[in-house]
Design goal:
3 helices, elongated, alpha+beta, 16% strand, 3-stranded antiparallel β-sheet, 83 residues, binds zinc ion
């Protein structure tokens, strides 16, 4: 996932997620999670999904994207100021 504001919003707004996205961007925090068939809010695929709180609301993924985004912004700023 590219570290853009749009993708950060996707993770922040996601209500349900498939297991793949959940484990990629979050951490399994609720072992009693109920899974059902639906559309994943993160990848948009129809899959077996569960609620975002099962994966800690993707806190880890959101932090990771924010960190990468600010690093890219810092580096692009450095390029423009060196002109
Ligand atoms: Zn997904």
């Amino acid at each position: 996932m590219e570290p853009t504001q749009e993708n950060i919003q996707i993770l922040k707004k996601a209500r349900v997620s498939c297991r793949d996205c959940g484990l990629r961007y979050g951490e399994l925090s609720n072992l009693k999670a109920v899974f059902g068939v639906g559309v994943c809010d993160v990848c948009g695929e129809r899959a077996v999904v569960t609620e975002a709180d099962t994966f800690g609301f993707f806190y880890r993924g959101i932090c990771n994207l924010r960190r990468r985004k600010s690093r890219i912004e810092r580096e692009s700023k450095r390029v423009t100021t060196s002109d």
